[in-house]
Inverse folding.
């Protein structure tokens, strides 16, 4: 029986039968938006980062144009950092927002940070856009995105100083990450109350490649799990960047339904370590920006036949990505329906 996009993603996440693989891009760090769809919709950046109607309108426009089979907000990974005191450059049509000044000079200063407010800054915009997208929507999965605890902490203070604290001042590092996790839980619960069907946490900095197995085990896993365990999301997605061979055996400890990984990670190699989790990915975003529709479809077919359950880009899309390339990727997932019928 043909499923809606929401039913399909839920089924894939829970290891239940689905008519074909979903093709999604969560948003957040894994940005799903690009210039062509902004121009077509009349909802360009940076306005779509700060105006709820344009934020929601941009998500709808991509889906209606035959793009990814989900809505995903926000379109960057700076919302939480800004709410906690970081200065952010809002970018432009081609450049997503980015932190230009951290609020802390040292990890030990974390107690000077404000509590994350749900009533000021861009967070109310994101929550209102989620409400707009969820109203009357029964078919399209709506994904709320959070920045991983280690990655968020590493934007509130220089990442090198955070790494140093992990090694030499573990009590300070844990206290800092405790605070960060509590702020993320508050924001994540507000996203769910606003109508999000799924929560995706992306960790571009808290990786096995950057931290090594010991600190990945001691910092990345506990704080990701702490956030996920506190959220009653129907679907929980974790994305971790970089090479993962040195932490494969630790992945079973992550509390998520879907695990998303980078293009540098061989699908067949990681798949045995994802027992009980759906595998998501892992089409190179450089490929999506530079190749033909035919090659994208070939890579998508290869990914699906190598063990991917949820087809997705491996990271955020360049804003110069053509709509036709995204449509080709979705088309490859839809072909699998014909193969299964």
């Amino acid at each position: 029986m043909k499923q809606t996009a929401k039913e399909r993603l839920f089924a894939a996440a829970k290891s239940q039968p689905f008519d074909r693989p979903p093709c999604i891009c969560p948003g957040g760090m894994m940005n799903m938006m690009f210039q062509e769809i902004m121009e077509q919709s009349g909802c360009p950046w940076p306005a779509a980062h700060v105006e709820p109607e344009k934020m929601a309108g941009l998500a709808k426009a991509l889906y209606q144009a035959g793009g990814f089979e989900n809505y995903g907000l926000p379109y960057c990974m700076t919302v939480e950092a800004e709410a906690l005191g970081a200065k952010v450059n809002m970018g432009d049509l081609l450049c997503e927002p980015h932190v230009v000044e951290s609020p802390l000079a040292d990890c030990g200063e974390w107690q000077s940070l404000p509590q994350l407010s749900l009533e000021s800054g861009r967070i109310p915009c994101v929550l209102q856009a989620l409400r707009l997208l969820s109203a009357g929507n029964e078919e399209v999965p709506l994904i709320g995105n959070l920045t991983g605890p280690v990655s968020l902490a590493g934007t509130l203070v220089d990442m090198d100083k955070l790494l140093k604290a992990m090694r030499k001042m573990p009590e300070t590092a844990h206290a800092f990450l405790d605070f960060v996790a509590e702020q993320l839980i508050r924001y994540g619960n507000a996203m769910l109350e606003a109508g999000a069907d799924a929560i995706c946490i992306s960790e571009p900095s808290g990786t096995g490649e950057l931290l090594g197995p010991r600190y990945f085990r001691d910092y990345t896993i506990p704080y990701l799990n702490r956030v996920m365990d506190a959220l009653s999301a129907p679907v929980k997605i974790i994305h971790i960047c970089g090479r993962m061979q040195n932490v494969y055996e630790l992945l079973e400890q992550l509390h998520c339904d879907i695990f998303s990984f980078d293009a540098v990670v061989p699908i067949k190699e990681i798949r045995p370590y994802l027992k009980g989790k759906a595998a998501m990915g892992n089409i190179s975003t450089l490929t999506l920006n530079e190749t033909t529709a035919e090659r994208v479809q070939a890579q998508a077919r290869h990914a699906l036949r190598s063990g991917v359950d949820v087809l997705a880009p491996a990271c955020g899309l360049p804003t110069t990505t053509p709509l036709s390339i995204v449509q080709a990727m979705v088309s490859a997932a839809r072909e699998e329906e014909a193969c299964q019928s």
Remarks:
- The first strand starts at residue 71 and ends at 73.
